[in-house]
Amino acid sequence: MKGKVILKWLGNCISTMFIILLVCAVFIVIASRAAGGETSLFGYQLKTVISGSMEPEMQVGSVILVKQTEGDDTFESGDVITFMTKDAILVTHRIIGVENDGQRFITKGDNNNGPDVEPVLAHNIVGKYSGWTLPYVGYAFHYVHTKQGAILFMFIPGLLFLGHAIITIWRALRFIEVPNLKEE
């Protein structure tokens, strides 16, 4: 009897955590879509690594956490920054040189042979790498941002939630006693 109570409690905890995770994930996807793909939470953004220029520290397909920059942030050699190129592409590379009193930066990918061609201007810096990396999750993030991925991401949890509701109702109905309608 005690084992059933523990299993029921554990099942309820898992269900509650699943629902909370589902709501958070849906919120992140919707907020990301509304913000043009850039979701920020507590001043941090998740970025997907799409090239091997920073390997081995950042593997292709990883997700990295980037702290958004403020106007008064300072950067020095060795910092890993995310910046916008003149072609509106986000790049994450290491600063190897500082020029013009911190207004221009020479950057280089750790896995590249030489520095980047264009120096980075301070106002083009989007954020600073926090040191947190989650390998391979970027592949899933990238897929979720496609039309099919977004639909699938909403559809599968919805089916799981519906299945859970049906099972819960079925279990509750099993315990309802049907009155005996025998004629006497």
UniProtKB/TrEMBL annotation:
Domain Peptidase S26, residue spans: 35-99
Protein location: Membrane
A cellular component annotation (GO) from this entry: membrane
Example of a GO MF term: signal peptidase activity
Domain of life the protein comes from: Bacteria
Membrane among keywords: yes
Biological process per Gene Ontology, one example term: signal peptide processing
EC number, UniProt record: 3.4.21.89
Transmembrane intervals: 6-31, 151-173
Record keywords: Hydrolase, Membrane, Transmembrane, Transmembrane helix
Protein name per its UniProtKB record: Signal peptidase I
Record organism: Lederbergia lenta
